[in-house]
Amino acid sequence: MRYLREVVIEDNPVNGFLPASIGNFSDSFRMFVARRNKLKGTIPEEIGNLSGLRVLALSHNEFTGSIPEKLRTMNNLQEFYLENNSLSGTIPDDICSLPNLGALKLTGNQISGSVPACLGNVSTLRYLHLAFNRLSSILPESLWSLQDLLELNVSANLFSGRIPPEFFQ
Hints:
Elements: E1 6-8, E2 15-17, E3 31-33, E4 38-41, E5 55-57, E6 62-63, E7 79-81, E8 103-105, E9 112-113, E10 127-129, E11 134-137, E12 151-153, E13 158-159
Parallel strand pairs: 1-3, 2-4, 3-5, 4-6, 5-7, 7-8, 8-10, 9-11, 10-12, 11-13
């Protein structure tokens, strides 16, 4: 399957684990969508080997563990969806090194810690959904410099501090 470009497995009662061998797909692999299934376990670090991937959608499953750290090599990733799983840990700084990231949706997990300030440097970011997690601290002021951001949802977290006046200008 070295020419396989897209895999879409959604709205099925598929259960089991995502194997580490997913990282063996070729550079021509562009889209992996496995939403609304019953996939469980951790998301394997080997998924970071998919350097040609543009869309990774693993929402509405039963994944646990943390967001894989090995994302830096996924330079073509444009859409990253992990909503409504049971992921914990923090948002890895490697997400900030994705030069084409336009959508990051992590809503409905158990992610804690602070929002990485470096997200404000991802100028391609249009959709940032972090609601219903356990994120705390203050929202980094760098987020307000995202001039093309269309949607920001940080509802139902543990943020403190004030909303900077720049937000309203």
